[in-house]
Description:
Blueprint: E1 2-3, E2 10-13, E3 16-19, E4 27-28, E5 49-55, E6 67-71, E7 77-79, E8 96-103, E9 109-115, E10 141-147, E11 154-160, E12 175-182, E13 187-195, E14 201-208, E15 220-223, E16 229-237, E17 240-247, E18 260-265, E19 273-275, E20 293-300, E21 307-313, E22 320-325, E23 335-336, E24 351-358, H1 360-369
Antiparallel strand pairs: 1-4, 2-3, 5-6, 5-24, 6-7, 8-9, 9-10, 10-11, 12-13, 13-14, 14-15, 16-17, 17-18, 18-19, 20-21, 21-22, 22-23
Amino acid sequence: MKIIKNTLKALSVLGALAVFAALTSCNELADNLKVEPSDWSEGKIQTDAYLMSSIGVNKYIESDSLHLAYSEDGLTWTELDSNNAVFTTTMGSRHFRDPFIFRMNDGKFVLLASDFTSSGKYWDLGSRSDVNGYWGHPSNCIIVAFSKDLIHWEMEHKLQLTDQCGKDGGTRHVWTPKALYNKQYKCYDIYWVGDNSEGVNQVYVTQTYDFYSVKSLKPKTIYSPGYSVVDADIVKADGTYYMFNRDLVKNYATFKGGDIQCAKLDGGWGRTFQRISENYINRVNSQTSVAYEEYPCVYLLEDKKTWIMLTCQENNQGSWSAYASENLSDASSWKTAADAGFTVTGLPSNTAASVVRITTAELDALKAAF
């Protein structure tokens, strides 16, 4: 098994120090390099609050940076630092998208984000906005940073997830990176959306032990429904995994595309996801009423039975819709949050959100810092 070295860093992997040589070619991966389960990955540690990461809706650096909001019940949200950026990358053009915060098995946090415009020209016109080919310079890397407290981010670097090409042999883009702990293989799975050789967006997984290196630059395709999908989010429920993503291929005559569908893992992790229904779960009243919503963000409320899904409106970014369900395997079970008896308020005027659970002490420290 090969490992790709990215940089010279020393970090703890569940208390064991792993040191990697900078810019080294492929070497054999040590057989005993594992990420063992912990109380964090097993859900044994009490968490009492929710932390949302997102970005702003324009193309300024301050917008394409990490913004945070918190909630103590998953319904009433409050922006941190008046919705100003709390962390800005120093990588590439200094723009990133799709920020996702994940708690590793040692309790520390890792931030994953899409690397945008890294090969494009950057023009400082006073607005600090990248005006040249914002979407036109794909990157096969993600931006990674670590934090012990969600306040100070360090050891920032780029991590390449694939060496495979997109359409016409060009660089394959890597969008909406997210992570899960893989207990079966004792590693972390980074799943992401990228284009294949025909230009169709699929969901891939690349495995890592440390977020500095990857097992292989040949990612596994885990969801390929036959049309382009984007904005994948994965949650675990009832002993299996569910994927929420947007069908990107719009057909105005047949009402296909433009909204959110759900897929379920077919067997053990490492296999593929299969769509549970053709239904668009955010079209709760009529499958012919197209909502054109994107970036599904799904999380479980404190009652341990209600799942909330937030979606961003495509043509009015910064404006959110909220839905609720108690049965992820039933695509017809979703209702608007209001119809299900829930009121979601205070959402930031941002886009591309994700949610992680944190402790009361961590939340108090964030409030004090921002």
